[in-house]
Amino acid sequence: MSATFTHRVLPYDGVNEFLAGAVPFLGEGLSAGDRVQVVCGLGLEVLLRDALGADAAGVEFTDAARWYAHPSRTLADCLSDAEALDGEGRRLRLLGEPVWARRRPLEVLEWQRVEAILNIAFRETGAAIMCPYAATLPPGVVAAGRRTHPETVRGSRAVPNPGFVDPGSFSAQCDRDPLPPPPGHADELKIDRPDLYWLRAYVAEYARRTPLPDEDLQRLLVAVTEIVTNAERHGEPPIMLRMWTDAAEDARGDPAFVCEVSDAGRWPPDAGFGLVPPRRSEAGTCGRFGLWAVRLLCSLVQIRTGPAGTVVRLRLALPGPLPGTGDGG
């Protein structure tokens, strides 16, 4: 496809600044025959429908709270749409306002990482993506938006963003802080000679003592199998498995079931962290889907690797407050 991928941030302070950037962007797509999609809240949808008039009928409006539900799954679904359209000789033109309100710090961090990583994932699709950032957002969120978008929109113009950071470097910065240590009550198992059938049974037995739903338990077992296999392949003994429930609210605002696999090795760069979704053309290849699939399966995946070893921590949201922790308010 001849179109060039673009990813632009639209900082706005008030209705006029928002419309001055959004309406020309959407109008260009409608004129070009793009698939034009807007992901936003009801307030912005009403503004855009009024500004676009009859042209609004050619725009797909999607509720932001539903669309921005899970970082990796949203990235995968959007990339799939962009690739399919690219194969048809068309372009995905997306105006998407990320949902930042009421998110926990860990979840905010993962959505910021997605904003950076999509510069890699989408660069061959020809998609055009614009992300509005309201001036009322926390300053740190707005500042990160300028670091994850190559261009900034000012009115109907797009200018290079001097604050843009290489996506790989930005992602590495997201992981610079060490993980907090496991609690003293964590269940701990040293894995000397992994028997994956027995290991899954062990994890399942522990998880069934928690409120983890059965569907999430099946996801957990697949994820743990992949992580332990990676530790064998890329790490060094000892391999340790730890599990616990976290009564503190996790990145999705709920208590969490936590499963951690650590080893004494430092994973090489080619091990990958599963941050970039595989392209459709790679469907028959090996080695790209493991950690990416783990990110799809879990609420949050945290990875740290260095001279002290490697830790992969899987978090799955639990329904409601844990017994004895009150109502979570």
How would you portray this structure in words?
The chain has 329 residues and is an alpha/beta fold. It has 2 domains: 6-174, Rossmann fold, CATH 3.40.50; 187-317, Heat Shock Protein 90. The chain is built from 10 helices and 12 strands. α8 (196-207) packs across α9. Residues 6-150 form the MEDS domain. It holds the Pfam family MEDS.
Topology:
Layout: E1 6-12, H1 15-32, E2 35-40, H2 42-52, E3 59-63, H3 64-67, H4 71-87, E4 92-96, H5 105-121, E5 128-134, H6 139-148, E6 151-154, E7 157-160, H7 167-174, E8 187-191, H8 196-207, H9 214-234, E9 239-246, E10 256-263, H10 290-297, E11 300-306, E12 309-317
Protein name: Anti-sigma factor RsbA family regulatory protein
Keywords: Kinase, Serine/threonine-protein kinase, Transferase
InterPro entries: Anti-sigma-factor_SerPK, HATPase_C_sf, HATPase_dom, MEDS_domain, RsbA-like_anti_sig
SSE arrangement, N to C: EHEHEHHEHEHEEHEHHEEHEE
Q: Tell me the span between the first and last alpha carbons.
A: 51 Å
**Number of helical segments?**
10
Would you identify the CATH H-level superfamily of the largest domain?
P-loop containing nucleotide triphosphate hydrolases
Helix content: 25-40%
CATH class type of the largest domain: Alpha Beta
Uncertain parts:
249-253, 284-288, 324-329
Shape: elongated
Features:
Heat Shock Protein 90, 329 residues, elongated, seven-stranded mixed beta sheet, 2 domains, Rossmann fold, alpha/beta, Anti-sigma-factor_SerPK, single chain, five-stranded antiparallel beta sheet
